[in-house]
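Slide 14.
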Amino acid sequence: MTAKLLSFAVRWGLLGATLLFLGKTLVTNWHQVRQLQFHSETWIHAGVALTIAVSAQLWWAQVWGWILKVLKYPVPKRWSIVVFLKNSIRKYLPGNVWDMYGRVRAAQQRGIALESATLSVILEPIFVIAGALSLAVLGDSSPGLKTLILGLILLAIHPNVLNWLWKWGSQLRGKNSSSVLMQYYPVQVLMGAGLFVGLRSLTFLLVVSAFTPLDQSTYRPVVGGFGLAWFIGLISPVPSGLGVFEVTALNALDDFLAPGLVLGAVALYRVIVIVADLIAATLAYLINEGQEV
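Slide 15: predicted structure.
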């Protein structure tokens, strides 16, 4: 009970602190935010960014199917896409786990072992973290620590290491683990994760360029800062990285973009991603997941 209270206090304390910082930053730079204008070109950029965000969500739904394949449970592409998208929208519910729970239940109903289904949803954000870290490494002139963390992640998902870690964790919980076994190193999944985070970074670049033209020399640091902010947001205990992503982006992009511009761009990016999730979920409900593709 004490651990739960401590976890609750840390999570919401961090959220409160980040929101206070964001509020102070917004007040300080309100004059810059007010100068951001929505004109015809802004809406065009936002529309293209939304299209790319929807495409990224559809793509990542397919990659989840690849993760199941690596775990010896190949599934039809249509099924993985529909199940992922239908449940993905639940991540906005309190608890931040209902999307994973929904996919695990759907996988079990298809005959996939509980351990494998659970491991697939645990591995998914790890691959996203690896992709986000790759962006952060590429955008940093001295990425020593980030490179080390990325290297450890790439080592941890090696079949020999991952299978051992999973069985060891099961033994600590007093359970036997025999059904989970990664067959080979997930190169295809890593490449899929790289494309996914690349599409998301392109979405962010389009959002920023909707407000101000970007010089080609700023592409790399902006993409790197976005990757770092996404990474920190993913590993933070705050649901959806709310506030943490924004604060990290402000600090990471401070030398390249005005704070008011970052605040406006991050807010619009959040809205576009949420709308993209809603569109993708709506599309999923229009598709028959039972059809083998």
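Speaker note: The radius of gyration is 20 Å.
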